[in-house]
Write a structure and sequence with these properties.
five-stranded antiparallel beta sheet; Beta-galactosidase, Chain A, domain 5; 2 domains; PcRGLX/YetA_3rd; 25% strand; globular; PcRGLX/YetA-like; signal; 905 residues
Length: 905
């Protein structure tokens, strides 16, 4: 990898000039006014090749797809148009917009959207040019209290208030579905129903975020309400694409109840579906596992004692209109009223290993078991030859307990519901898992930490403010789909196709710091690549072997292993869920960037969805903080910015342009304010009164500041709130001005502008966790973005000294840093210093540190696994001498050593 370049953007001094810097948002207008992008730069970049993540050309797409592409600094102006062509040269309508900017105002990231209705190819070419326009562009109209979106195939109407998030979905003159609503219910006791209440989502705002020509996005917000109570705030985005009959939905809710008496026992999205035709021309479909499809009619005419005729039977089974009953065998026609009409259906996936389908004629009568299976794809259909609604949920079995329900199909109006939490599953119990065990004082809590590694404090293990995001898809179909097409829709719903740019291009764009595509050019590099692949594969496959699934759990992995029981330590305090500890998220995303592997992307994607929502607070006094690892995701009393870290979410945002993750990152720019309400060192400082000074807060300049800096960097490069850039630059320059920079002891922070207060006397305070939550990565990027020699020099000094000798540390900082841990992890810091200084001896030292494996994996560490079967385990499993934190840090260290000093291996 080439030396990280520096481009003149600011004129600063190490100590104080940053405060005087005026913010200039990196917006299209600012870039054009500055005149920093020349025509040669705009037109001089060759088109790049894009491919579908899973390879090939998908048979179906969930309406359309949106993806992000990075560009080298100076390549394109913000108003650059892009053209997309298939491998055969056919123009594909594409909508493009910038989502990230370089400091000079040129585009760093662009987002692109194409409709699933357009011709699909295995690969495409994206480059500068005039975008083709869709034959039927999306049209958004705002009239009075309504917003309507017309894709050219369907029209979706939203009302700006009321109990319906969607007023109607129509295809031509036919209303396919209406009165789309969010439903929830609670009970006041966990073990038994007690008192139950039902709530409906009440819309407070509707905002059009994009309006075509290829893609429209409508954001609906509100809360669930019954009577005077409003709770469970929601944000639901609807995505519609030109020429498509699908509506993609991203649903987020935040839990703001009392976990001791607000037990959710149902959470879903429901539509009323008008029923047309006779019951024997009404069809029900459920997707099973793989290509499996259950195809039935509300009133079946196959398998009867009397045969209506082969043509009639085949028409019904295939989902087509049956011939006129006058043409049937009249022994059937005259007795249709004796055949039961099955109006209600349920496919319930209450765990990750089994689903069951049941049906009944109507309420008040018994349910009949239809069939079952292992893992349903998560799609159902209700309708007939004149149109119907397909409705489904992504990660259906992974996010159990879920359900797809149809009621009233034998009447004039049916209801189709996607249950994100099935009413058949019992209550969602979010209470703490023990009674405190007598840990009433800080000394007792610290002593308990020594044995369980979980930091308990009364009242801190609350889920108040955690969230969950779920993706759903609805298709307004013109007729009952064939079983083959329905299976294709189910596959697209389960794994939405995504276009991607290759690792080589992403690397050449210079984004995300020090990494490089996989390189097996010499045996020594190949050996490390093999270890990285084995390590990633092991952790990825543990998810299924250990069944790390469920509404609140899916996406996370466990922290440490218990070799005696052959299980991960799911019930041992702070050794249970990982909750982003030691940057697992970073490791997984960099692995994807280097390999371009689809499984790697999906693994990291699931983790980002989880850690962005479940492992951090979105409401309340701890808004913006995450929770350290524990048995419950919110159990540990250490609430920290190192867990809510925006750097863990940034990859997914820029690779997919996902608006929800963008919202989360934006909310984190003020997370430094949490240091006013919570003292991170309260148990060490004693139980005295916490009286924080906003001008002198105890915000550490390593773990704390590195996490805050990631949020500010993300906001700055997105052209957002100017305070982000101000605090980012002020923090870096004032830390560098401290006598010992990032290892200076006793520092204090000014909340107003992000500055660290000056100090004159050298002192040292440093811990092994200081840089393993993204500080190394954010500094690698930041130094490449600002022209500040003092910041660069001080950071290089830190990188050189962490694994340096006692004499080197004392000479530079006046003190020995102590016997530090995680020396293998910090080999990447040594590698960075070596690259910046051109120091071959340091490069050799970096490789020695990686191979020695202190607090990690030495060169001779076994990366393979062994199979454990029989009575020693509940299920056959693979186990290896690997822990999640060690794997994450080994992966990050290896990635950066290969990229920075690979030639010295």
């Amino acid at each position: 990898m080439a030396d990280i370049s520096r481009r003149s953007m600011l004129v600063t001094t190490a100590a104080g000039a940053a405060a005087a810097l005026a913010f200039r948002a990196a917006t299209p207008a600012a870039a054009q006014a500055a005149g920093t992008v020349t025509p040669a730069e705009v037109n001089g970049h060759d088109p790049i090749t894009l491919k579908w993540l899973e390879g090939g050309a998908p048979a179906e797409v969930t309406g359309g797809t949106t993806w992000g592409v990075p560009w080298p600094r100076g390549a394109f102006a913000p108003d650059q148009q892009f053209s997309l062509t298939t491998e055969a040269g056919a123009q594909v309508p594409v909508q493009s917009w910038p989502i990230g900017y370089w400091p000079d105002g040129s585009v760093k990231w662009t987002a692109h959207a194409v409709s699933g209705a357009d011709p699909r190819a295995q690969t495409y070419r994206l480059g500068a040019g005039t975008a083709a326009q869709p034959a039927k562009p999306v049209v958004v109209r705002t009239e009075g209290g309504k917003v309507s979106v017309d894709t050219g195939v369907i029209t979706v109407v939203f009302e700006r208030g009321g109990d319906h998030v969607v007023k109607s979905i129509s295809r031509g003159e036919t209303v396919i579905a209406r009165d789309g609503r969010l439903v929830a219910s609670r009970q006041d006791k966990a073990e038994e129903p007690g008192r139950t209440e039902s709530f409906t989502g009440r819309v407070s705002s509707v905002k059009v975020e994009q309006e075509g020509p290829v893609r429209a996005v409508v954001k609906v917000e509100g809360k669930h309400r019954k009577g005077r109570r409003e709770w469970l705030p929601f944000t639901v985005r609807f995505y519609l694409y030109a020429g498509s009959d699908a509506v993609r939905v991203v649903h987020t809710f935040v839990y703001d109840g009392n976990e001791n008496k607000d037990f959710i026992n149902g959470l879903g999205v429901a539509f009323t579906v008008p029923m047309r035709g006779e019951p024997h021309d009404r069809h029900v479909r459920f997707a099973g596992e793989g290509d499996g499809v259950l195809a039935e009619a509300v009133r079946g005419i196959t398998g009867l004692r009397r045969d209506p005729g082969a043509a009639v039977r085949q028409a019904q089974y295939q989902g087509k209109a049956t011939p006129d009953p006058a043409t049937w065998d009249q022994r059937v026609t005259t007795r249709l009223h004796w055949i039961p009409a099955w109006g209600d259906y349920r496919l319930s996936q209450l765990n990750a290993h089994g689903f069951e389908i049941r049906k009944r004629t109507k309420e008040g009568h018994s349910w009949v078991r239809v069939d079952g299976g292992r893992r349903a794809s998560g799609l159902a259909y209700l309708g007939g030859p004149t149109g119907g609604l397909a409705f489904g949920m992504r990660d259906f079995w992974q996010l159990h307990p879920t359900e797809l329900e149809i009621t009233g199909a034998a009447s004039d109006e049916a209801t189709a519901t996607v249950w994100m939490w099935s009413p058949r599953a019992g209550a969602m119990d979010l209470r703490f898992y023990h009674d405190g065990l007598g840990q009433d004082t800080y000394p007792e809590q610290l002593d308990a930490l020594e044995i369980t590694y979980e930091d308990y404090e009364p009242g801190f293990g609350t889920p108040y403010g955690v969230a969950r995001t779920t993706e759903l898809t609805f298709w307004a179909l013109e007729a009952t789909p064939t079983s083959e097409r329905f299976a294709r829709l189910a596959a697209a719903n389960a794994t939405p196709p995504l276009l991607t740019s290759p690792p080589q291009h992403n690397h050449s764009a210079g984004v995300f710091g020090s990494w490089a595509p996989v390189d097996r050019s010499v045996p020594a590099k190949a050996a490390i690549e093999d270890k990285l692949d084995l390590m990633h594969k092991y952790h990825r496959e543990q998810v299924d072997q250990r069944s790390w699934y469920g509404f609140w759990d899916y996406g996370d992995v466990m922290h440490s292993y218990d070799g005696d029981r052959h299980v991960w330590r799911y019930d041992v305090g702070g050794y249970a869920w990982d909750n982003s500890e030691l940057s697992t998220d970073l490791w997984l995303w960099y692995h994807y960037l280097r390999t371009g592997d689809a499984k790697a992307f999906r693994f990291a994607e699931a983790m980002t969805r989880h850690t962005s929502e479940v492992d951090m607070y979105h409401l309340g006094k701890w808004r913006g903080l995450g929770t350290r690892h524990g048995i419950l995701h919110w159990a540990d009393s250490a609430k920290q910015v190192r867990i809510s870290n925006a750097g863990y979410k940034r990859f997914y945002y820029f690779l997919t342009a996902d608006e929800r993750v963008g919202d989360v990152m934006h909310d984190l720019i003020d997370s430094d304010r949490t240091f006013l309400v919570l003292d991170p060192g309260r148990k060490l400082d004693g139980a005295g009164t916490f009286d924080p000074d906003p001008k002198a807060l105890g915000v550490g300049q390593t773990t704390d500041w590195g996490s805050l800096a990631m949020a500010w960097l993300a906001e700055w490069e997105r052209g957002g709130d100017p305070i982000a850039r101000t605090k980012l630059i002020n923090g870096a320059t004032t830390i560098a001005a401290l006598p010992n920079g990032w290892v200076q002891a006793g520092v204090t922070y000014n909340l107003a502008d992000g500055r660290y207060n000056p100090m004159t006397e050298k002192s040292v305070s440093i811990g092994s966790l200081s840089s393993v939550f993204g500080l190394i990565e954010v500094m690698t990027e930041l130094i490449g973005l600002i022209d500040d020699e003092a910041v660069k020099a001080k950071w290089i000094e830190f990188c050189r000294l962490y694994n340096g000798t006692r004499a080197e540390q004392e000479a530079a900082t006046g003190a020995y840093w102590g016997s530090l841990n995680l020396r293998q992890a910090y080999s990447r810091a040594t590698a960075y210093a070596a690259r910046q200084l051109g120091d071959q001896a340091l490069a050799k030292r970096a490789w020695q540190e990686l191979r020695t494996g202190h607090a990690g994996y030495p060169d001779n560490h076994p990366f393979g696994s062994r199979r454990v079967t029989g009575s020693a385990v509940l299920n056959p499993v693979d186990e290896a001498e690997l822990s999640t934190n060690a794997s994450a840090q080994y992966g990050l260290a290896a990635f950066q050593c290969l990229a920075l000093v690979g030639e010295h291996i």
